[in-house]
Structure formats: C-alpha cells, structure tokens
Amino acid sequence: MEQREKQTIRPNYGILSILMIGAFISFLNNTLLNIALPSIMKDLDINTSTVQWLTTGFMLVNGIMIPTTAFLIQKYSVRRLFLSAMTLFLIGTIIAGYTSFFPILLGGRMLQASGSAIMMPLLMNVMLVSFPIEKRGAAMGVFGLILMAAPAIGPTLSGWIIEHYDWRMLFHFVTPIALVILLVGFFLLKDKKEKVDIKLDFISLILSSIGFGGILYGFSSAGDKGWDDPQVYLTIIIGVISLITFILRQRKLELPMLNFGVFKYPMFALSSSISMVLNMAMFSGMLLLPIYVQTIRGITPFDAGLMMLPGALVMALMSPITGRLFDKFGGKVLALTGLTITTITTYLFSTLTFDTTYTFLMALHAVRMFGISMVMMPVSTNGLNQLPARFYPHGTAMNNTLNQVSGAIGTALLVTIMSNRTESSLATLTAEAKEKMTGQPTQEALAQMQQQIGFQAMIDGINFAFFISAFIAAVALILAFFIKRSKQAEDPMGKQPSEKKAVTKLAEN
C-alpha cells in the first residue's frame, strides 16, 4: 500500500511552473517597493513610521490569512486557490497604481497580500508532496533560485523605474504580467480534486484574526504612537489573549484550522524558532539600508537598487547549491556557517558613517545575503522533513504565519528603536551644538547645521537598530547548535480520512 502511494505521487511540473511564476511576480512586487519607500514618503508627505505600513500592513494581512490556508489547501483544488489568489493580487495592484492617497494605497497593498498569503503556502505544499524526502533539498533549491530571482532584479529595476517615471509605475508594470499569469492559469490548470468534507470553524477564524492581527497591529503602531499609547499595548494584550484562546480551541477540535500539534516534533519547533528570530533580524537590512543610502547619503534610487543587486544575485545563485549541500550534509553545518556570517555582517552595518563607501556597502550586503542564503531554506526544509505527510499543510501554514508575524514584529521593533534613538540623539546633539555656538549664526548656517544634526541623529538611530539586529541574529546562531538531521516521523494518528485524502489528492492535482 505504502509503495503504491509513493508511486502515485509524482511531480506535476506544469502545475509547479505556473505556481512558481505566480509566486515570482508576488515576490517581485514586494521587492520593487522597498527602494520606492523614500520616494513615496516624499511624494505623499508621510514619515518613516507611516510608510512602514506598506511593509507591515502587507505582513499583517498575511499573518491573518495564512492560518486559514491549511484548511483551504485541504478543502479546495490547486486551480481554484491559484485563480482566487491571482485575482485578489491583480485587483490590489490596479488599485495601488491609481491612487494619490496613502490609505487607498495601503488598501491596495493589503489586497495584494491576501493573494500572496494563499500563493506561498499552496506552492510550498505542492513541493512537499511532489518530491521524496531525499530529493527535497535539491527541489527546494531550484524553487529558491526562481523566487530569489525576484529580489535580485527587483531593487535595480525599481530604482530605474523611479528615476525615469513616477513610483506608481511599479504597480502599472506588474499589472499586465499578473493578468497574463491569471489567464494562463485559467486555461491550463485543471480541476481534479474530489470534494473533501471539512468545514471551517468560524470561531477559530475570528480568534486567529484578532490574535495575529492584534499583535501585529500593536507592534506596527508602536513606531508612530510609542509603547505607552493605549492603542498599542491594549491591542497587543487583546491579541495575546485571543491567540492563547485560539491555540486552546485548536487542541480540542478533531480537525483544527491550524494544527499546533506540529510543535510536538522537535526539529520543526526548532526550525520555526530559528526562522522567526532570523526574520526579525533580516528585515533591518531590507528597510533601514534604502533609507540610509537615499535619505542621508543622497544616492539615487537606481544606484541604491544597483548596490543591493550583487547580494540578491548571490542569494539566488546559492539557493540550488545550498539545496544540494543540505541533501548531502544536513542543515546544521549550513545554519551555523550562515548565521555566523549574518551576525558579523549585521554588526558591521551598525558602524555606518557619512563617509562609508558605496563599494563597502555593496560588498557587505552581498556577504550578508550569502550568509542568509545558507540558513532560510535548509532550516525550514529540515523542520518540515520531520512532519508526517498529513501535517504538511499545517506545517507550511504555521511556518508562513510565524515568518510574517516575526517579520512584522521585527520591522516595527527596529523602526521604533531607530525612531526613539534618533529623537534622543537629536536632542543630545542639538544641546551640544548650542553649547559650542559662539555669536549669532546666519539663518542659512543655522538651517545647514540643523540638517547636519538631523542626519547624524538618523545615522545614530540606524546604527543602533542594526546593533540590536546583530544581537537578535546571535540568538538564532545559538539555537542552531541544537539542529539535528530530520527523518520523517511516524504518524501516531494516521487514520484520519479527511486529512489523509486531502494530502493524497493534492499530490495528484
């Protein structure tokens, strides 16, 4: 029986190709926007704490939507989910491309996010059931190469578009591509899935939305409102209580919306912890570096994107290599090496000055991306490999949810740290400048001095945020010492027809 089941599970490269192209364009869209944030801040007259919502708002919707994907993957076919995801993504892209109001822009981004939230877990799940465990590292490596091509070309392409056109062109550029992918999926993907009799527990959905949404909203608001604002700490408290209630409810349900039983498998629990911690550290470079090079150093958007290109290329090219190395050596050696590099390079980013050279920034970013490329996919795959097959939808949904939550918390936390440090440095530097001041400076000299002090305070804030980020990366490094090579665990409750049928049918789809 087991042999016959293995023979039926063969990779459907047509479905995989369409799903990967869809995931690629959603990844590309996200990386296009990072370089554009300073331009959007200037055009819409908003500050850093507000513009970060284009990133954290995207993650907020992902954090709310992704827990439902385990249910959606079991209930509906690949075709239906793909077409729904691409339609939502396309509508959000069109809305974002035709607005001059930040709330509407944010709404468009959130619609895009609702599509991406379905796309990534769906693709990951199809990958897991399509390849045997001994070939999964190489398969995930190729998957990573394709997806990492997006951040490789995204920043440079974004910089070129912003220099020659309005930032809205970033969305207009993506719209026709997304439309073509939607049409290709509509005509080529076939619906083979049998009806699976499972129902969504709406109480769980509400608790999950309030739980993940409250925590993410609270942390994301802290950068603008401060930690002592009731809107911040009350939403976090409500979110934590709702999340605890959600977890307790899942343990009682026969078919939970999101099965927390995946954490009974130690390597999965460890890999999730490492990925969460690294995600918090990783977003410092994605958010803080473009602000530093464009706002403080005056580097053009195109040159800023070009500066990040080697790092993205390294990450993309390393993906299939680390996949094969993972199949051969396991995840521990790769994780320890990659996290050591990541921690050191992140610390070096905390020493930025007005005179830090463009070449140094480019090289350091490339080495940092090299380190991260050795960690993310191997650690995640090692954890998923320990799960029984029926837990794959829950494992991928859990990983994606935690990655979004940790990324949003990390972004909000680091922006808050940067903002608070910038304000305190500004006050200190201003007081020192007044003490040293002799005579009555001209209005022009005073304005120039204030600008210089403002930039220096911002550098201090960015450096301190990178320093905290290096400390966070060091925590992931310590956790990596406990990694062991995973073997698929036996399923103690294997006779669960609904879930088992769902997984088998997904493999055939």
From TrEMBL:
<feature type="domain" description="Major facilitator superfamily (MFS) profile">
    <location>
        <begin position="15"/>
        <end position="488"/>
    </location>
</feature>
<keyword id="KW-1133">Transmembrane helix</keyword>
<feature type="transmembrane region" description="Helical">
    <location>
        <begin position="360"/>
        <end position="380"/>
    </location>
</feature>
<protein>
    <submittedName>
        <fullName>EmrB/QacA subfamily drug resistance transporter</fullName>
    </submittedName>
</protein>
<feature type="transmembrane region" description="Helical">
    <location>
        <begin position="111"/>
        <end position="131"/>
    </location>
</feature>
<dbReference type="InterPro" id="IPR004638">
    <property type="entry name" value="EmrB-like"/>
</dbReference>
<dbReference type="InterPro" id="IPR036259">
    <property type="entry name" value="MFS_trans_sf"/>
</dbReference>
<feature type="transmembrane region" description="Helical">
    <location>
        <begin position="268"/>
        <end position="292"/>
    </location>
</feature>
<feature type="transmembrane region" description="Helical">
    <location>
        <begin position="231"/>
        <end position="248"/>
    </location>
</feature>
<keyword id="KW-0813">Transport</keyword>
<comment type="similarity">
    <text>Belongs to the major facilitator superfamily. EmrB family.</text>
</comment>
<feature type="transmembrane region" description="Helical">
    <location>
        <begin position="464"/>
        <end position="483"/>
    </location>
</feature>
<keyword id="KW-1003">Cell membrane</keyword>
<feature type="transmembrane region" description="Helical">
    <location>
        <begin position="169"/>
        <end position="188"/>
    </location>
</feature>
<dbReference type="Pfam" id="PF07690">
    <property type="entry name" value="MFS_1"/>
</dbReference>
<feature type="transmembrane region" description="Helical">
    <location>
        <begin position="138"/>
        <end position="157"/>
    </location>
</feature>
<feature type="transmembrane region" description="Helical">
    <location>
        <begin position="85"/>
        <end position="105"/>
    </location>
</feature>
<feature type="transmembrane region" description="Helical">
    <location>
        <begin position="200"/>
        <end position="219"/>
    </location>
</feature>
<feature type="transmembrane region" description="Helical">
    <location>
        <begin position="304"/>
        <end position="321"/>
    </location>
</feature>
<feature type="transmembrane region" description="Helical">
    <location>
        <begin position="53"/>
        <end position="73"/>
    </location>
</feature>
<keyword id="KW-0812">Transmembrane</keyword>
<dbReference type="InterPro" id="IPR011701">
    <property type="entry name" value="MFS"/>
</dbReference>
<keyword id="KW-0472">Membrane</keyword>
<feature type="transmembrane region" description="Helical">
    <location>
        <begin position="12"/>
        <end position="33"/>
    </location>
</feature>
<feature type="region of interest" description="Disordered">
    <location>
        <begin position="490"/>
        <end position="509"/>
    </location>
</feature>
<feature type="transmembrane region" description="Helical">
    <location>
        <begin position="333"/>
        <end position="354"/>
    </location>
</feature>
<dbReference type="InterPro" id="IPR020846">
    <property type="entry name" value="MFS_dom"/>
</dbReference>
